Inverse folding.
């Protein structure tokens, strides 16, 4: 049995990751983002319910790492048949992402992991984030970027599962 303190964490993003953008008109105001994060968003039909069971089968602790914050448990989790998951206490997302700047989630995810191995799946991870995590995080880490147009694929899930299985087996 894996020591819970060493069980890998898997940080899950929603927009562009579990919920692909592919052809969507993305919100541009805070009000529109509020509507986007509601059960009435027609884009939610793009979620793949089978992803929930595949994520739950991995020997890791799942956590939301998304601007959806607790809304992910209210809207996304039921559609993926996931239980309520812990939510990383992220800072507010910037109105616009800056090129060449550490992602707004990176520091908080490393702090939350507190030395535990973790995988982070997101559509906005950069080489700068990878280098910073490698320098600042003492444990194993996988920062896996997905294509926001297609979101998480079977190939991405297989890669994440293999990494988690490998880390969990080494514990």
């Amino acid at each position: 049995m894996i020591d819970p303190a060493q069980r890998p964490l898997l940080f899950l993003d929603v927009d562009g990751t579990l919920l692909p953008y592919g052809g969507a008109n993305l919100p541009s105001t805070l009000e529109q983002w509020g509507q986007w994060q509601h059960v009435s968003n027609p884009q939610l039909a793009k979620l793949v319910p089978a992803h929930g069971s595949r994520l739950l089968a991995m020997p890791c602790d799942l956590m939301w790492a998304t601007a959806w914050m607790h809304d992910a448990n209210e809207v996304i989790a039921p559609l993926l048949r996931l239980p309520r998951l812990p939510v990383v206490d992220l800072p507010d997302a910037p109105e616009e992402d800056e090129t060449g700047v550490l992602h707004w989630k990176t520091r908080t995810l490393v702090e939350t992991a507190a030395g535990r191995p973790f995988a982070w799946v997101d559509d906005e991870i950069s080489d700068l984030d990878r280098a910073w995590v490698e320098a600042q995080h003492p444990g194993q880490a996988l920062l896996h970027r997905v294509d926001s147009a297609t979101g998480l694929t079977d190939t991405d899930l297989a890669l994440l599962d293999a990494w988690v299985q490998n880390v969990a087996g080494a514990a």
